[in-house]
Design goal:
It comes from Candidatus Beckwithbacteria bacterium CG23_combo_of_CG06-09_8_20_14_all_47_9. InterPro entries: Acyl_CoA_acyltransferase, GNAT_dom. Residues 1-139 form the N-acetyltransferase domain. This protein is α+β, with helices and mostly antiparallel strands. It has one domain (37-138): Gcn5-related N-acetyltransferase (GNAT) (Aminopeptidase, 3-Layer(aba) Sandwich), CATH 3.40.630. The protein is built from three helices and six strands. The chain has helices at residues 9-28, 78-92, 108-114; strands at 37-45, 48-58, 61-69, 97-103, 118-123, 132-138. It has a six-stranded mixed sheet with strand order 1-2-3-4-6-5, covered by helices on one side. The radius of gyration is 18 Å and the shape is globular. The chain starts with 8 loop residues before the first helix and ends with a strand. Bound molecules: coenzyme A. The site of coenzyme A (COA) has 17 residues, from strand 3, helix 2 and helix 3.
């Protein structure tokens, strides 16, 4: 009888390492390595953190997450510098696409558009039932 119960991350990883090669062969026609790498950057002004960003590079796609600039430091190029640092690092490591989501109508939409990101899909009733927009930039 099948029983479903809580698992540890270690068990999940061990099981996945054994089983994913079968699924990958079906999906990609070969064994693949997702090569997951995570990056975190901060921007400082006189040793004080004024912005930060996180990104995950997975199978050639950079997922941008957690970009935030201090509320009294916006409009000074900090967000752009952080995003470009992450983009440059990911590109060097072979990224072919940058991907993120942001809230529909948020000021961040204009910011990402200025950086060359294009809206490609709407996520209806996403976080807290608000609409979000998927933005991507192909390299
Ligand atoms: C969105 C955010 C990261 C932008 O950071 P920032 O440091 O203010 O942006 P920058 O000064 O680097 O601006 C870069 C470019 O985007 C444009 N831009 C930034 N915010 C803009 C806005 N609200 N409206 C219009 N253009 C904007 C700038 O004009 C600038 O263009 P330029 O390079 O041609 O001069 C920042 O406002 C923030 O932290 N917001 C709250 C958190 C958030 O929304 N994070 C993103 C969620 S996914």
């Amino acid at each position: 009888m099948i029983k479903v119960s809580k698992s540890s991350d270690k068990q999940l990883k061990k099981f996945g390492q054994a089983e994913w090669p079968f699924a990958d062969k079906e999906h990609y026609g070969k064994q693949v390595n997702y090569n997951v790498k995570e990056f975190v950057y901060k921007a400082t002004d006189n040793n004080k953190i004024v912005g930060s960003i996180k990104g995950k590079l997975e199978a050639g796609v950079l997922y941008i997450d957690y970009l935030i600039v201090a509320h009294d430091k916006t409009g000074q190029g900090i967000g752009k510098a952080l995003t470009q640092k992450l983009e440059t690092k990911a590109k060097k490591l072979g990224a072919h696409k940058f991907h993120l989501i942001t809230g529909k109508g948020w000021l961040a939409e204009k910011f990402y558009q200025v950086l060359g990101y294009k809206p490609i899909a709407i996520l209806s009733k996403h976080h807290f039932k608000k609409d979000f927009v998927v933005y991507e930039k192909l390299i």
